[in-house]
Amino acid sequence: MAWQFTIFAKRSLVENTTTPRPHLPHWMKMKRANGENYSRVKNLVMRQNLHTICTSGNCPNIGECWNQGTATFMILGNICTRRCKFCSVPTGRPLQVDWQEPGRLAESVKSMGVKHCVITSVDRDDLDDLGAGLWVEAIRRVREVNRGTTMEVLIPDFQGRKELVQQIIDEKPEVISHNLETVERLSSQIRSRARYRISLGVLRQIALSGATAKSGIMLGLGETAEEVLQTMDDLLAAGVKVMTIGQYLQPSLDHMPVHAFIPPEQFHYYHEIGFSKGFSVVESSTLVRSSYHAEKHMV
Length: 299
Known about the structure:
Elements: E1 3-7, H1 36-47, E2 51-52, H2 53-56, H3 62-67, E3 72-75, H4 101-112, E4 114-121, H5 132-145, E5 150-154, H6 162-170, E6 175-177, H7 184-190, H8 196-208, E7 212-219, H9 225-238, E8 242-247, H10 264-277, E9 281-284
Parallel strand pairs: 1-3, 1-4, 3-4, 4-5, 5-6, 6-7, 7-8, 8-9
Antiparallel strand pairs: 2-3
């Protein structure tokens, strides 16, 4: 079978809160993580010493995606330098850059028969180039070993440094994604060091290059419907063509609590209005994550 491949990254741990996590509503049912393909992906990840956001980020789609041969991998290690309040990826002092990682990644894509590859990473603010050099090497190695494989990269903000973002653009992946994560009012509350307007600048640079620009947000953090619509307008003004919208789930009691579980009909509303506003692709549903159905996001 032709497999899909995704490499995806995020952030970290946060202040403690005594607020208990609420029970999931009935529409938030998730598939159990088992099956032959699930086991195959799990074994490959362990054998190649790779990291996945599926496990590190407690992704609710791990059962569905891994059984379909889709895995979401992270590069630049499994320790992030940022401490975002929504993400379960460990934070702290990362290990040294593993320059063998791109090669193992490329061989894993080949062994899985991947036709579309999505790559992401943790933030590496500890490095002079913020990890851009390994990003370039990873893209090149995957392309060299997997001729004909298309690619999406989900990149950090690189602190808004245009020359580093340009290094990724110059490798010409088919889709370049960078997530806003939430509306502008809440951005500084849940994102560590990242800034809403800096992220929009990154996306604008991507779009102006001619690449397909993509971004995503989470709902249920306390945003209003008006703020979500304004975020859509901001993304469109930056040139973004693909948007993902999903429900925020609290990874642990150390993370930002869920403010509300958004009902499916509200996600459907955002799906329809997103198209009417001018997005080429809108993925909007409770369990949607950035790399969900990524193979459909090339426009």
